[in-house]
Write a structure and sequence with these properties.
Strand order of the largest sheet: 4-1-6-5
Mean pLDDT: 88
Order of helices and strands: EEEEHEEEHH
Structural class: alpha+beta
Largest sheet: 4 strands, mixed
Distance between the termini: 40 Å
CATH class: Alpha Beta
Shape: globular
CATH superfamily: Nucleoside Triphosphate Pyrophosphohydrolase
Number of strands: 7
Number of domains: 1
Length: 156
């Protein structure tokens, strides 16, 4: 017995990628947490790589706790993107909406400083991809208005 498969649109070269997960962590006043990388001084959302055989939600929580000492309420993914880095290595990132009542951050050795910034200021300080994650997280939050923050509507 043969099974017919429609292969139109299938890629000949699937992406093989390292998976990163990050949190758009909102404080009670709706500021967003940013952390500064020790390696190059760039600003980013807290998070990191998913370990082999690790549950995705457990992995993003672990990374945020390790990097910031915060254990936020983890919401739904708000953005995902794939790309090839300069070395042609595959990367896949997922960004989650998070909330915390605690603003006391305890940085890991991977970062040199942190800032709580308004969503618009966080959006402007981050890379385009991470800025998009902030805009999507704002749009997904019933208590926030993406228009009031001067951010564009989310990309799906």
């Amino acid at each position: 017995m043969s099974v017919w498969r429609d292969t139109r649109g299938m890629t000949e070269r699937p992406l093989r990628a390292t998976v990163s997960q990050r949190g758009v962590v909102f404080a009670p006043n709706d500021d967003v947490l940013l952390v500064r990388r020790r390696t190059d001084g760039g600003w980013e959302l807290p998070g990191g790589r998913l370990d082999r055989d690790e549950d995705a939600r457990a992995g993003v929580r672990r990374e945020i706790v390790e990097e910031t000492g915060l254990d936020p309420d983890l919401g739904h993914p708000v953005h995902a993107v794939s790309w090839l880095n300069d070395a042609e290595d595959g990367r896949f990132a997922v960004y989650y909406h998070c909330r915390t009542e605690d603003r006391s951050v305890s940085l890991s050795h991977e970062h040199t400083e942190f800032e709580w910034r308004s969503p618009a200021a966080a959006h402007d300080r981050l890379s385009d991809t991470q800025g998009r994650a902030v805009a999507n997280a704002v749009a997904a939050d019933d208590t926030l208005d993406v228009g009031e923050l001067g951010l564009s509507a989310p990309q799906v």
